[in-house]
């Protein structure tokens, strides 16, 4: 087994990406704390919002800036862990961590408002995200995107936006389109739509992706995170240099991990939705009881 350190510090820790994320975090606190009074209809930043947004930034760096990102090009199962965290956890944290008044300002822009309103319709949001995710993991498409730096950056960025839009009807506090049973149905539908892509990967009997099985395509995909100059000095035969599993078992493990993590994440969200719905029902029941008792108390 070879060490990841052979790819260099920049490939392992992405210092420029780290600086960019630090800049985003500083800008977030400047906007929501120091310069908040320059905007109308605002509210103080809560500790919860600040902590959640900070966690989202840290997670984003861990997934896309730490050695995990490099591992995602060497081992398919690491890639699928990236997918689960990047598209199923981080978008939720950003939605919750960004104050409502900031979201309202963003959604007031003439171009953003109608487009966002259309894309966040439950059926549209579900179909677009899951469709893009499944399309991305079609072998021919996957290999093509993974060997082009600009296309990969563009597609994964749009997919992240669509993941945020997909989570919006469930976790946003700016507007409410789904309540109670509708949210539960939305979560189940989301899980069902993601299943075919995972099943395709899990039950394949041969390695499907050239960028994880063909040395030439694999080396080309490494250029997404490793300098071509460094790659030219290395003698690489394929991902088996860094992974003790066979290519097929690595691929199958990736599909299983994606499905298991998806079920865990959706299960947690489902529990929260059910608990909130139950609390609301209990509160409404208590109010009804008070209304019934009110005439008796007035007598």
From TrEMBL:
InterPro entries: Caa3-assmbl_CtaG, Caa3_assmbl_CtaG-rel. It is found in: Cell membrane. Keywords: Cell membrane, Membrane, Transmembrane, Transmembrane helix. It holds the Pfam family Caa3_CtaG. It comes from the Bacteria. The chain crosses the membrane at residues 12-33, 45-63, 75-98, 118-138, 150-172, 184-204, 256-275. It is a multi-pass membrane protein. Its main location: membrane. NCBIfam families: caa3_CtaG (TIGR02737). This is Membrane protein.
